[in-house]
Give the backbone structure.
Amino acid sequence: MKKKQLEMTLERLEGFSEPSFIREQYATPASVAAEILFLAALRNDLGTVCDLGCGTGVLAIGAALMGARAVGVEIDKDALATARKNAENLGVHVDFIRADVRKLELEGIDTVIMNPPFGAQKASEGDRAFLSTAQRIARNIYTLHNRGSHDFIKKYIFPNVVQEVYCIPFPLKRCFEFHSKDIKVIEVELYRITCQHS
């Protein structure tokens, strides 16, 4: 499957019906998902993939479309129901699990690919909970963060290592009342991290 074809397929997925501002539920744009997945594929990192905080399933479903064994983890039951429906509509299998990422126990995960909440809201779990679990369960991590997060990420994941950082344009669609534009493009950073498991 070519990147543009994957992007067009993911564009058809149903998004959040009522996104939670508190949980920072911003859907991962299809263009961003396709970019991340193709970067991971180029590095042979799409074996068994886990999408932490999978929302409506775009990254997990995209990984499955590219031949990965995919697992999607989400605490929001409504988002998870949409994710299951999205996978079914595309005829792909994803193991969806309803769980709190802080308490998640999984084995056999090669790569975590995630768009975690950035921690802008106090009630949000923020990226720390997601990074901690990702480091515990996987050998590789592809994770999106606010631009300018490098020092924090490098310090937080030590002794694990940031291998690469990519700046990616993230077209943020209007999904909350306070948004003033239909689409606002923000720059986010994609971190590729390798974990040193004993």
